[in-house]
Design goal:
rod-shaped
């Protein structure tokens, strides 16, 4: 029974995914691009496969091209969807209130001036 528990522990240890921070990925990318050490040595040291390096290189290229494609100047701030919906509801409520007040004002003017708009 003890051997089954050991097998389970070994499997969970082997199946754990390794998380690399963006900084670490970029460091590995730069190190492999330098060429002073063999790429295989760097990958073994980091516990990575060549497919992982290919994925990191694609991510670096995608990030760099996206950053270089952006136009200079101030960026427009994105408003969260919830805030946008709340502002939209508030605007609709205020428009309804304004329409109600316009009707009320029209009725009051008709009562006081006998239907004339002139004061």
């Amino acid at each position: 029974m003890c051997s089954k528990n050991n097998d389970k522990n070994e499997q969970t240890e082997k199946s754990k995914r390794r998380f690399l921070s963006p900084e670490k990925k970029f460091q590995i990318f730069l190190e492999t691009q330098r060429g002073d050490k063999p790429v295989g040595e760097i990958l073994r040291r980091e516990g990575l496969y060549s497919s992982d390096l290919v994925r990191i290189r694609e991510q670096v290229k995608k990030g760099a091209t996206a950053q270089l494609a952006s136009k200079p100047g101030r960026r427009k701030k994105a408003v969260p969807a919830e805030a946008y919906e709340a502002l939209k509801r508030e605007l609709e409520e205020k428009e309804r209130a304004l329409a109600d007040l316009s009707v009320e004002l029209t009725l009051l003017r008709k009562k006081t001036n006998g239907g004339s708009w002139v004061r």
